[in-house]
Specification:
Blueprint lengths: L1 E3 H14 L4 H16 L4 H11 L17 E2 L8 H10 L1 H7 L1 E8 L6 H10 L3 E5 L2 E5 L4 E5 L1 H4 L3 E8 L13 E3 L2 H12 L7 H7 L9
Helix pairs in contact: 1-2, 1-8, 2-3, 3-8, 4-6
Length: 216
Protein backbone atom coordinates (compact mmCIF):
# COMPACT_ATOMS: atom_id res chain seq x y z
CA UNK A 1 0.00 0.00 0.00
CA UNK A 2 1.33 3.41 -1.00
CA UNK A 3 0.65 6.34 1.35
CA UNK A 4 1.58 10.00 1.25
CA UNK A 5 3.81 11.36 3.99
CA UNK A 6 0.88 13.44 5.23
CA UNK A 7 -1.21 10.28 5.66
CA UNK A 8 1.64 8.56 7.46
CA UNK A 9 2.10 11.47 9.85
CA UNK A 10 -1.62 11.75 10.62
CA UNK A 11 -2.04 8.03 11.29
CA UNK A 12 1.14 7.87 13.38
CA UNK A 13 0.05 10.77 15.57
CA UNK A 14 -3.36 9.28 16.30
CA UNK A 15 -1.91 5.81 16.93
CA UNK A 16 0.80 7.10 19.27
CA UNK A 17 -1.79 9.00 21.26
CA UNK A 18 -4.02 5.92 21.36
CA UNK A 19 -1.09 3.94 22.75
CA UNK A 20 -0.92 6.33 25.70
CA UNK A 21 1.67 8.90 24.66
CA UNK A 22 1.03 12.55 25.48
CA UNK A 23 -0.19 14.65 22.57
CA UNK A 24 3.17 16.43 22.46
CA UNK A 25 5.17 13.23 22.24
CA UNK A 26 2.64 11.73 19.82
CA UNK A 27 3.21 14.70 17.52
CA UNK A 28 6.98 14.21 17.72
CA UNK A 29 6.59 10.47 17.07
CA UNK A 30 4.49 11.23 14.01
CA UNK A 31 7.01 13.73 12.62
CA UNK A 32 9.79 11.23 13.20
CA UNK A 33 7.89 8.41 11.50
CA UNK A 34 7.24 10.68 8.52
CA UNK A 35 10.92 11.68 8.42
CA UNK A 36 12.14 8.09 8.39
CA UNK A 37 9.55 7.12 5.77
CA UNK A 38 10.76 9.98 3.56
CA UNK A 39 14.23 8.44 3.59
CA UNK A 40 13.04 4.98 2.63
CA UNK A 41 12.78 3.32 6.04
CA UNK A 42 9.66 1.41 7.20
CA UNK A 43 8.71 4.03 9.78
CA UNK A 44 5.12 2.80 10.20
CA UNK A 45 6.23 -0.78 10.80
CA UNK A 46 8.82 0.25 13.39
CA UNK A 47 6.43 2.56 15.20
CA UNK A 48 3.85 -0.24 15.33
CA UNK A 49 6.42 -2.61 16.83
CA UNK A 50 7.33 -0.05 19.50
CA UNK A 51 3.71 0.74 20.39
CA UNK A 52 2.99 -2.97 20.84
CA UNK A 53 6.07 -3.43 22.99
CA UNK A 54 5.28 -0.52 25.31
CA UNK A 55 1.49 -0.74 25.24
CA UNK A 56 0.13 0.38 28.63
CA UNK A 57 3.65 0.61 30.10
CA UNK A 58 4.03 3.81 32.18
CA UNK A 59 6.26 6.30 30.35
CA UNK A 60 8.42 6.77 33.43
CA UNK A 61 9.47 3.10 33.23
CA UNK A 62 10.97 3.51 29.74
CA UNK A 63 12.36 7.04 30.17
CA UNK A 64 15.94 7.96 31.13
CA UNK A 65 16.41 7.97 34.91
CA UNK A 66 18.75 10.97 34.70
CA UNK A 67 19.84 13.18 31.81
CA UNK A 68 23.00 14.09 33.70
CA UNK A 69 24.20 10.52 34.07
CA UNK A 70 27.30 9.38 32.21
CA UNK A 71 25.19 6.66 30.58
CA UNK A 72 21.42 6.99 30.27
CA UNK A 73 19.29 4.03 31.29
CA UNK A 74 15.62 3.33 32.05
CA UNK A 75 14.02 1.55 35.04
CA UNK A 76 12.46 -1.12 32.79
CA UNK A 77 15.89 -1.94 31.30
CA UNK A 78 14.58 -0.90 27.92
CA UNK A 79 14.34 2.70 26.85
CA UNK A 80 11.75 4.24 24.54
CA UNK A 81 13.54 5.80 21.54
CA UNK A 82 10.82 8.46 21.41
CA UNK A 83 11.34 9.64 24.98
CA UNK A 84 15.12 9.26 24.68
CA UNK A 85 15.13 11.15 21.39
CA UNK A 86 13.03 14.00 22.72
CA UNK A 87 15.35 14.24 25.74
CA UNK A 88 18.36 14.27 23.42
CA UNK A 89 16.90 17.17 21.46
CA UNK A 90 16.38 19.09 24.71
CA UNK A 91 20.02 18.37 25.65
CA UNK A 92 21.48 19.47 22.31
CA UNK A 93 23.91 21.96 23.85
CA UNK A 94 25.10 19.37 26.35
CA UNK A 95 25.69 16.97 23.46
CA UNK A 96 28.07 19.43 21.81
CA UNK A 97 29.81 20.17 25.11
CA UNK A 98 30.33 16.48 25.93
CA UNK A 99 30.95 15.35 22.38
CA UNK A 100 28.64 12.38 22.85
CA UNK A 101 25.73 11.02 24.88
CA UNK A 102 25.45 7.27 25.50
CA UNK A 103 22.26 5.29 26.18
CA UNK A 104 21.77 1.65 27.15
CA UNK A 105 19.12 -0.85 26.05
CA UNK A 106 17.18 1.28 23.57
CA UNK A 107 14.24 -0.28 21.73
CA UNK A 108 14.00 0.26 17.95
CA UNK A 109 16.92 2.75 18.00
CA UNK A 110 16.23 4.08 14.51
CA UNK A 111 13.10 5.80 15.88
CA UNK A 112 15.38 8.04 17.96
CA UNK A 113 17.32 9.25 14.93
CA UNK A 114 14.80 11.87 13.65
CA UNK A 115 15.26 13.78 16.90
CA UNK A 116 18.90 14.23 15.89
CA UNK A 117 17.64 16.51 13.15
CA UNK A 118 16.28 18.99 15.66
CA UNK A 119 19.51 18.81 17.64
CA UNK A 120 21.60 19.37 14.50
CA UNK A 121 19.56 22.42 13.50
CA UNK A 122 19.90 23.90 17.00
CA UNK A 123 23.64 23.29 17.11
CA UNK A 124 24.36 24.25 13.52
CA UNK A 125 26.48 21.09 13.03
CA UNK A 126 25.62 17.56 11.88
CA UNK A 127 24.88 14.95 14.56
CA UNK A 128 25.51 11.20 14.37
CA UNK A 129 24.08 8.07 15.99
CA UNK A 130 25.70 4.67 16.09
CA UNK A 131 25.01 1.23 17.49
CA UNK A 132 26.35 -2.20 16.62
CA UNK A 133 26.58 -2.43 12.82
CA UNK A 134 24.85 0.91 12.16
CA UNK A 135 25.88 4.56 11.71
CA UNK A 136 23.69 7.52 10.71
CA UNK A 137 24.39 11.24 10.44
CA UNK A 138 22.12 14.20 9.71
CA UNK A 139 22.28 17.96 9.46
CA UNK A 140 18.51 18.13 9.96
CA UNK A 141 17.73 18.11 6.24
CA UNK A 142 19.72 15.22 4.81
CA UNK A 143 20.46 11.75 6.14
CA UNK A 144 23.58 9.64 5.64
CA UNK A 145 23.72 5.97 6.58
CA UNK A 146 26.25 3.16 6.83
CA UNK A 147 25.63 -0.42 7.82
CA UNK A 148 23.57 -3.50 7.07
CA UNK A 149 19.85 -2.82 6.65
CA UNK A 150 18.97 -5.40 9.31
CA UNK A 151 21.19 -3.61 11.83
CA UNK A 152 19.86 -0.18 10.89
CA UNK A 153 16.35 -1.48 11.57
CA UNK A 154 17.30 -3.47 14.66
CA UNK A 155 14.63 -4.06 17.30
CA UNK A 156 17.07 -3.31 20.13
CA UNK A 157 20.43 -1.67 20.72
CA UNK A 158 22.48 -2.62 23.77
CA UNK A 159 24.37 0.64 23.44
CA UNK A 160 23.31 3.71 21.43
CA UNK A 161 25.72 6.62 21.10
CA UNK A 162 24.90 10.11 19.82
CA UNK A 163 27.70 12.51 18.99
CA UNK A 164 28.56 15.81 17.34
CA UNK A 165 29.91 17.05 15.07
CA UNK A 166 29.45 14.40 12.38
CA UNK A 167 30.70 13.98 8.84
CA UNK A 168 28.08 13.92 6.08
CA UNK A 169 28.92 11.48 3.27
CA UNK A 170 26.56 9.99 0.67
CA UNK A 171 23.23 11.52 1.74
CA UNK A 172 19.98 9.74 0.84
CA UNK A 173 17.41 11.48 -1.34
CA UNK A 174 13.96 11.91 0.30
CA UNK A 175 10.75 10.70 -1.34
CA UNK A 176 7.14 11.95 -1.14
CA UNK A 177 5.35 8.62 -0.71
CA UNK A 178 6.13 5.35 1.06
CA UNK A 179 5.06 1.73 0.81
CA UNK A 180 3.40 0.43 3.97
CA UNK A 181 2.28 -3.13 4.66
CA UNK A 182 -1.46 -3.58 5.13
CA UNK A 183 -0.89 -5.34 8.46
CA UNK A 184 1.20 -2.47 9.86
CA UNK A 185 -1.34 0.11 8.73
CA UNK A 186 -4.14 -1.91 10.33
CA UNK A 187 -2.17 -2.20 13.59
CA UNK A 188 -1.76 1.57 13.84
CA UNK A 189 -5.45 1.89 13.01
CA UNK A 190 -6.28 -0.24 16.07
CA UNK A 191 -4.27 2.05 18.32
CA UNK A 192 -5.80 5.12 16.65
CA UNK A 193 -9.34 3.90 17.36
CA UNK A 194 -8.65 4.14 21.08
CA UNK A 195 -8.76 7.92 20.74
CA UNK A 196 -12.34 7.87 19.50
CA UNK A 197 -14.98 8.74 22.09
CA UNK A 198 -17.32 5.80 22.84
CA UNK A 199 -20.78 6.15 21.36
CA UNK A 200 -23.62 7.25 23.63
CA UNK A 201 -27.32 6.68 23.06
CA UNK A 202 -27.69 10.35 22.10
CA UNK A 203 -24.80 10.25 19.61
CA UNK A 204 -26.13 7.04 18.07
CA UNK A 205 -29.55 8.65 17.56
CA UNK A 206 -27.99 11.73 16.00
CA UNK A 207 -25.96 9.56 13.68
CA UNK A 208 -29.02 7.59 12.59
CA UNK A 209 -30.08 10.33 10.20
CA UNK A 210 -33.49 11.86 9.44
CA UNK A 211 -36.75 10.34 10.58
CA UNK A 212 -36.38 10.68 14.33
CA UNK A 213 -37.58 14.29 14.35
CA UNK A 214 -38.86 16.86 11.90
CA UNK A 215 -36.84 20.08 12.06
CA UNK A 216 -37.93 21.51 8.71
Amino acid sequence: MSHSLNEIEAMSKRAARGAGLSWGLAEEAAKGTRWLSAFGFPGIEMLGDLLKLNDRVPSIDVAPVSLRAEVWHAPARRMSPLIAGASLSDCAVRLLERGKITMENVSVPLLAVPFMGGAALRLGVPVYAEWEGAYLATDGKQLCTRGDLAQLQAAHADRLVFGAPAEMTGPREPVMRAEVSADSWALLGEFARRTFAPATEESRQRGAGAGLSDND
